[in-house]
Specification:
Keywords: NAD, Oxidoreductase. 44% of the residues lie in helices and 13% in strands. The chain contains 18 helices and 14 strands. The strands form three sheets. It has a six-stranded parallel beta sheet, sandwiched between helices. It has a six-stranded parallel beta sheet with strand order 11-10-9-12-13-14, sandwiched between helices. Helix 1 (15-25) packs across helix 3 (59-66), helix 9 packs parallel to helix 12 and helix 12 (295-322) crosses helix 13 (350-360). The radius of gyration is 24 Å and the shape is globular. It binds nicotinamide-adenine-dinucleotide (NAD) and uridine-5'-diphosphate-xylopyranose. The site of uridine-5'-diphosphate-xylopyranose (UDX) has 19 residues, from helix 9.
């Protein structure tokens, strides 16, 4: 079966970039991305592609090329479902905030709504693709909903998890390490798998397209994120030991990373990992393991989160103790708010938690991030519900530029590894600060030697 019309439900960080690249690489396929969020769709349709709702290097060019040709963004969800032969579900699957599994399980209500809507609207056979990250065996639930409509329409369900990382989404989509497609082992299931393989084969080498059964595919996504996050927590755990022993975590990471069995990537000690995926997916993995009575498995992975929470709290604590045990009334500048560089996404960013701890200590925070604005920063802080929005507002100023953020500050904390931070006029920043002038580099990106020569007291992570 050759696919000519694709619909994607969910125009977020995954649905938007993924579909833009499919449309760019498959001009013969009409790709319609739908979302309930009207403002988001309007932004995707903004005539100036620099105003699309997601900042990703290279994305606005891809959208400019394909939009209006074979890429469309719309709020007409039912029409797009009806037309398409293949429907990707790319809606959010956040951690549950209520009921059983609260704080651990993935909330599948948006997924179920999509499945019910597809079941209700479809008049012809469809391939439904799970693009969202889902607990293992979710396809079974989706299948139950789709197979009980009684209207004779037949559905095949595939799992096709997305491995892109934010900040490098376009490059990751253009040159993926692998594409993973899980499906039924029946003949019909294999036909559906082949139809999706053919879509990706327009630009991805077939040797990199891996096909598995549904459950392996669903579980591989959670596993990949758990392994990646575990590496960060592992190096972060050692960063604390480095600080006690005189070892330097950058040197340790380099030394172990040159072992080809370990490899050099994902060994950067930091103020803690953030993002919408790692914590959510590990909590989900822990929940699933517990549900099967596998307590040791659950505890093993749970430790990755415990370590990450510790690393964030430890960073805030270090700022307080270094500043003579009080930051009350002191101005502290934050460079960076996004959870990593080259994205405007702030979900679960370590900066939010460090800010919350420092505000508890009555610090006055002044934040600058190249891509995140005031509304987002304040709403992230308010979402924690630690104090009233008015109280947060009083302690938090969002600066127009880094020099203003740092002017008169007692200390600077680097929370995101934006490249531009390295190239600031650090002498000018130093001259305008209170003395002693402290820098807490939560990403180990600044030139410690140069800053120390200028006069800063420089504190990195793990040295
Ligand atoms: P997101 O919140 O940015 O986007 C989800 C979109 O779905 C929202 O715009 C929302 O309005 C829309 N939506 C929800 N229910 C809907 C419905 N019933 N009909 C129409 N639209 C609906 O989320 P995201 O970051 O794109 O993540 C989506 C999924 O992909 C999640 O399961 C996530 O775990 C997974 N994932 C994310 C990343 C990442 O880097 N963000 C990477 C890989 C996988
Ligand atoms: C992650 C996975 O990498 C991706 O495959 C998946 O599809 C979605 O989740 P993302 O969260 O976008 O992607 O970014 P990633 O590069 O994985 O970084 C996650 C967090 O870990 C960031 O806060 C980053 O700063 C931190 N990190 C990463 C470190 O602290 N040290 C590292 O060495 C690597």
């Amino acid at each position: 079966m050759k696919i000519t019309k694709i619909c994607c439900i969910g125009a977020g960080y995954v649905g938007g970039p993924t579909m833009a690249v499919i449309a760019q690489k498959c001009p013969d396929i009409k790709v319609t991305v739908v979302d309930l969020n009207e403002a988001r769709i309007a932004a995707w349709n903004d005539p100036d592609t620099n105003n699309i709702p997601i900042y990703e290097p290279g994305l606005s060019d891809v959208v400019a090329e394909a939009r209006g040709r074979n890429l469309f963004f719309s709020t007409e969800v039912e029409k797009a479902i009806d037309e398409a032969e293949m429907i990707f579900i790319s809606v959010n699957t956040p951690t549950k905030t209520y009921g059983s599994g609260k704080g651990m399980a993935a909330d599948l209500k948006y997924i179920e709504l999509c499945a019910r809507q597809i079941a209700r609207v479809s008049k012809s056979n469809k391939i439904v693709v799970e693009k969202s990250t889902l607990p293992v065996r979710t396809a079974e639930a989706i299948k139950n909903i789709l197979d009980n409509t009684g209207n004779g329409v037949r559905f095949q369900i595939l799992s096709n998890p997305e491995f892109l990382a934010e900040g490098t989404a376009v490059q990751d989509l253009l040159n993926p390490d692998r594409i993973l497609i899980g499906g039924d082992t029946t003949e019909e299931g294999q036909h559906a798998i082949n139809a999706l393989v053919d879509v990706y084969a327009n630009w991805v080498d077939r040797a990199r397209i891996l096909t598995t059964n549904l459950w392996s595919s669903e579980l591989s996504k959670l596993t990949a994120n758990a392994f990646l996050a575990q590496r960060v927590s592992s190096i972060n755990a050692l960063s604390e030991l480095c600080e006690k022993t005189g070892a330097d975590v950058n040197e340790v990471a380099k030394a172990i990373g040159m072992d080809s069995r370990i490899g050099p990537k994902f060994l950067k000690a930091s103020v803690g990992f953030g993002g919408s995926c790692f914590q959510k997916d590990i909590l989900n993995l822990v929940y699933i393991a517990k549900a099967y009575g596998l307590n040791e498995v659950a505890d093993y992975w749970g430790q990755v989160i415990i370590m990450n929470d510790h690393q964030k709290r430890r960073f805030a604590h270090k700022i307080v103790t270094t500043l003579y045990n009080t930051v009350s009334g002191k101005k502290i500048a934050f460079l960076g708010w996004a959870f990593k560089k080259d994205t405007n996404d702030t979900r679960e960013s370590a900066a939010i938690y460090v800010a919350d701890d420092l505000i508890n200590e009555q610090a006055e925070l002044h934040v600058f991030d190249p891509k995140v604005g005031e509304n987002q920063i304040l709403s992230d802080l308010n979402y924690l519900d630690s104090r009233t929005p008015e109280e947060n507002r009083k302690q938090m100023t969002v600066a127009e530029n880094p020099y203003e953020a740092c002017k008169g500050a007692h200390a600077i904390a680097v929370l995101t590894e934006w490249d531009e931070f390295r190239n600031y006029d650090w002498k000018k920043i130093y001259d305008n600060m209170m003395k002693p002038a402290f820098v807490f580099d939560g990403r180990n990106i600044l030139d410690a030697k140069k800053l120390t020569e200028i006069g800063f007291v420089y504190k990195g992570i793990g040295s």
